[in-house]
Design brief:
- The chain has 616 residues and is an alpha/beta fold.
- Helices cover 28% and strands 29% of the residues.
- The protein has 16 helices and 27 strands.
- It has a six-stranded mixed beta sheet with strand order 2-3-1-4-5-6, sandwiched between helices.
- Strand 2 (71-76) and strand 3 (81-86) form a beta hairpin.
- Helix 10 (457-470) crosses helix 16 (601-611).
- It binds adenosine-5'-diphosphate (ADP).
């Protein structure tokens, strides 16, 4: 792999943190002033490009509806360029901190030399920056003139920083005593701190090695748009990891098709390679059907498109996350629907208090599992800060409610369908299915009715069960309310419990259908992914699975309300009712749709009977 191009090596992104009034702004001001005085010439073109890249990113997020207040400043010395992100440290500004730190190479923490020195808030900054992948810390102990240039305060802070660095596993932590006001140890070494042997702050920053994760990452090239011009068809985007090289084989995800890079166009014309974070337009040897949002990856080390993501969320929304809620997940150029399936540990960024894991509130950090309606091409954040990051958006308000870091991805939703102890083996019976069904004059199947509460599932399915049995068929109703007596009596109504309930019912239905019966399932089963699991279980076993969408508008369900659920929810005596507080995902392609406002029960039952091959 070739060396890092010089302009890349030259640029250092610095997030500046620290408590209010510890002197962040004056230190940044001093750095800018003294460094510019040293140099005085103009930014070269490449650096301009880099800077606009930073501000472009911000603009995109503004359009996204985030109000960020990160001030980016640029300055350079003869040795390198710097992008400084000033991230106000107050609780309200967690999102600024996240935004500033997510692209930074190191955290410059400004700490007042006077007591209390290193505050809890400063330590939180270090922790948050570490969470976002920054493991290089530079601490400027400021206002050294106010402690008469004595070393004691600095030594105390140094000890605390060393302990924190050990605890978090930071790779580097440097402490520099400075006076932003007087300029001591900012650009040149001060004669007033003879006890300090190290270099001045600017030199520390000039010597810092930028994170070069992109260099080690395999190729990730998200396609931002398709450039069409006559016969020309280029895939334009920004390299988010690795290199684009002409001649290299690439895999297009999620389709998995392969081709080679025939040509790369850059702003300055055709080039042989492009490395992150620069942009390019790629022409493939084969005319594949590539769309905006697809990702070109190196065939070696291609990630599996993910349907389920374990992630760390920094919660930025005023309304808390609760398991079962659905959001829009924005990842690279894609937006997909995501359901928070489960929430594990939670802690507050500014408080030591461990929150309880039933919800995730403002400024809390939590571990969640998200289920996606459409797969995304993601990497763990530790491996790639671009393809490993996402934001969650509230579907209604369009507010950004969380910054997310991918920990782990899975291609399948809760593949617990295969879950078993290694000590058990499937015990085959003496009958195969054909023989069994022939002797019983039966044909097994599962009819799965899904729909809002009070949409008519029980009404239709009891009628169907009765009609089937009257025709001599072994049919049995697995009703949502009935399975919660006993079989699923231990489960609640959060997303994870609902998923587990569906899983159990799906397995029971499969056994029943295999036996030659017709399992009639009447279950709200609000999540498409859970129903898909039931379908997969049947399809893998070669059993018919008929998904029936009982399609009744919410207002009508609330009006009918035979069990009084909607009334109780309205009165505040029932929480989490599907359709009201919890989402319902209608099936995109059910075998049968019954619009109960238009079709009487008897007609619907007749249609289902015909489909099952039981006519008249
Ligand atoms: P679910 O099992 O989906 O919660 P229920 O079957 O218990 O719903 O309740 C549906 C209500 O709607 C019942 O009171 C039923 O009589 C009424 N209803 C009216 N028209 C229809 C129809 N065409 N199909 C099914 N139910 C209907």
């Amino acid at each position: 792999m070739s060396a890092v191009p010089p302009h890349e090596q030259d640029l250092l992104r610095v997030a500046v943190g620290g408590s209010v009034d510890h002197g962040k702004s004056s230190l940044i001001g001093r750095l800018l002033l003294d460094a510019e005085a040293l140099k005085g010439d103009q930014l070269d073109e490449v650096k301009r490009g880099e800077l606009s890249h930073v501000t472009d990113g911000l603009r995109a997020e503004r359009e996204q509806g985030i109000t960020i207040d990160v001030a980016y400043r640029y300055f350079s010395t003869p040795r390198r360029g710097f992008v400084i992100a000033d991230t106000p440290g107050h609780t309200r500004y967690t999102r600024n901190m996240v935004t500033g730190a997510s692209t930074a190479d190191l955290l410059l923490l400004v700490v007042d030399a006077r007591p209390p020195g290193l505050t809890e808030q400063s330590l939180r900054h270090v922790q948050l920056a570490h969470l976002l992948g920054i493991d290089h810390l530079v601490v400027a102990v400021n206002k050294i003139e106010l402690v008469d240039y004595e070393p004691e305060a600095v030594t105390a802070i140094q000890h605390e920083i060393a302990a924190t660095a050990r605890r978090l596993g930071l790779t580097q932590a440097t402490v520099v005593p400075v006076s932003a006001l007087e300029g001591d140890n900012v650009v040149t070494r001060s004669t007033r701190t003879p006890w300090y042997q190290g270099p001045p702050l600017l030199q520390v920053l000039e010597d810092a090695v930028p994170r070069s994760a992109a260099e080690y990452s395999p190729l990730r090239f998200p396609v931002q748009w398709i450039v069409r011009d006559g016969a020309y068809r280029g895939l334009a985007g920004q390299v988010s990891g690795g290199y684009l090289n002409t001649g290299d084989e690439v895999t297009v995800l999620p389709s998995g098709e392969r081709s080679r890079i025939a040509r790369i166009d850059s702003f300055d014309g055709p080039v042989d390679h492009v490395r992150g974070p620069l942009s390019g337009t790629v022409i493939l040897e084969d005319n594949l059907d590539v769309a905006r949002g697809d990702v070109l990856v190196s065939t070696d080390g291609a990630p599996q498109p993910a349907r389920e993501v374990d992630a760390t969320l920094v919660w930025l929304g005023s309304e808390s996350l609760t398991p079962g809620r659905r959001y829009l997940l924005k990842h690279l150029t894609r937006r997909v629907r995501a359901t928070a399936a489960s929430l594990r540990s939670v802690y507050d960024v500014y408080d030591d208090e461990k929150g309880d894991a039933s919800e995730l509130a403002l400024n809390e950090v939590g571990e969640v599992t998200l289920r996606l309606a459409t797969p995304i091409v993601a990497d763990p954040y530790a491996r790639n800060r671009t393809t490993g990051a996402f934001i969650l958006i509230d579907e209604l308000s369009h507010d950004t409610v969380a910054a997310g870091l991918v920990r782990e991805t899975r291609a399948q939703i809760g593949s617990d369908e295969e879950q078993k102890s290694p000590d058990v083996v499937w015990h085959p019976g003496k009958l195969d299915r054909t023989e069994r069904w022939q002797h019983l004059h039966a044909k097994g199947a599962t009819v799965w009715l899904t729909g809002l509460p009070a949409s008519g599932k029980s009404t239709i399915s009891t009628a169907l069960e009765q009609a089937l049995v009257h025709r001599g068929r072994l049919a049995y109703l697995l009703d949502g309310d009935n399975v919660r007596h006993g079989l699923s009596g231990d489960l609640g109504f959060d997303a994870a419990s609902r998923a587990e309930n569906v899983r159990r019912v799906a397995h029971v239905a499969r056994f029943f259908a295999d036996a030659g019966g017709i399992a009639v399932v009447a279950l709200v089963s609000p999540f498409a992914q859970d129903r898909d699991l039931a379908r997969r279980l049947h399809e893998k076993a070669g059993l018919p699975f008929i998904e029936v969408f009982v399609d009744t508008p919410l207002e009508e369900c609330a009006r009918r309300d035979p069990k009084g659920l909607y009334a109780r929810a309205k009165a505040g005596r029932l929480s989490g009712l599907t359709g009201e507080q919890n989402p319902y995902e209608p099936p995109p392609a059910p075998e049968v749709t019954i619009k109960t406002l238009e079709e009487p029960v008897t007609d619907a039952v007749e249609r289902l009977m015909a489909l099952l091959g039981v006519v008249g």
